């Protein structure tokens, strides 16, 4: 038995699991149809997603769409869709894609119950989720029986290397994108061989269907709507990880690509040794976590980390690496060449022949650490820095940084730097910065 056959045995649902899932799906659809019929609006219910396409791994999520006539207003679709979802799934949790839907559980399985419009073709889209039934139909009609297992392998591979999922947290490969890759290339191996040669900006399609141009790291024109890039959520980092992982797997296949070991935080002593060897310093900013969904949180966390680094760079602290960690609180970790700077800094002024040069002289003769001097025809001075310690800079200037909108009012819980930052509570955040191993290398 080959490695890939062994992996398939582990990830494919057994006959008993299939039977149990089929039973749960039937009972869910019956209940959803019953509630949809009560509305007397001409609603229909459709199972979509990986279970409908038979490309799911064990313990799948269920995606059920309630299709509304196009004549129904957007407001009515949302209100009826939410009410119907709550009647089917209990209170559930209201989530938001392009419009709200209900997430809950049905007999132990996670379920998304989503309202959308019943349209004839994608040129009549009213919202992005209206495409999903077309995606399901396309995959079911173009994916052969044997290729469903190839999709399972590719999904587990992407999951193992950490790039499975188009949500903001991962910025990786959606299940639909992986299905299209198997349709295009035929097999798991062929998809990896093709992927190992991708470059940033690679453009893919099926049946020559292409629409507008995109500037994303990877472009795969949606075969049901050529003006959409199926890979739009994929970050350059996740693309690069997939390319590298594909190359390494083809060189030496291992189950670690599918089932990596659990990654534990680095020991504090190891982190101290690494930073001493590098001669750098770290600063950790811990903030309260706002109560928002992950798809809104993670873009703001990344934006805030960029803002913190820009603030430090703007005050002469040279950033050499950065990371973040999301748990009950948010941790931002910045590695800099030095956590402390000298008081004096070189400050350039105007040319000596312009009128405002006198104002420069008048100010810096009083405030400078040196008297102003001429340098290539311009006045200059050794000026005092407002902040010489990274910790002090962040403590006083963080509100001026370009933070995510929901983080601007978030409470700062702690700011630590240097040896004080290398603590047990900061282990996960510091490991995110210092542990550069790929998942399969752990």
Would you kindly provide a written description of the structure presented here, covering whatever features stand out?
With 442 residues, the protein is an alpha+beta fold. It has 4 domains: 1-128, Beta Polymerase, domain 2 (2-Layer Sandwich), CATH 3.30.460; 143-260, CCA tRNA nucleotidyltransferase, domain 2 (Poly(a)-polymerase, middle domain); 268-340 and 388-441, Poly(A) polymerase predicted RNA binding domain (Alpha-Beta Plaits), CATH 3.30.70; 344-384, Alpha-Beta Plaits, CATH 3.30.70. 40% of the residues lie in helices and 21% in strands. It is built from 14 helices and 15 strands. It has helices at 3-11, 15-38, 49-53, 74-89, 132-142, 145-161, 175-185, 188-195, 236-251, 268-278, 294-314, 357-367, 390-397, 427-434; strands at 44-48, 62-68, 93-96, 100-106, 109-117, 202-204, 218-222, 225-229, 281-288, 319-326, 329-336, 344-351, 373-375, 378-384, 412-417. The strands form 4 sheets. Strands 1-2-5-4-3 form a 5-stranded mixed beta sheet, with helices on both faces. A 4-stranded antiparallel beta sheet has the order 10-11-9-15, sandwiched between helices. A 3-stranded mixed beta sheet has the order 6-7-8, with no helix packed on it. A hairpin with a 2-residue loop joins β13 and β14 (378-384). α6 crosses α7. The radius of gyration is 27 Å and the shape is elongated.
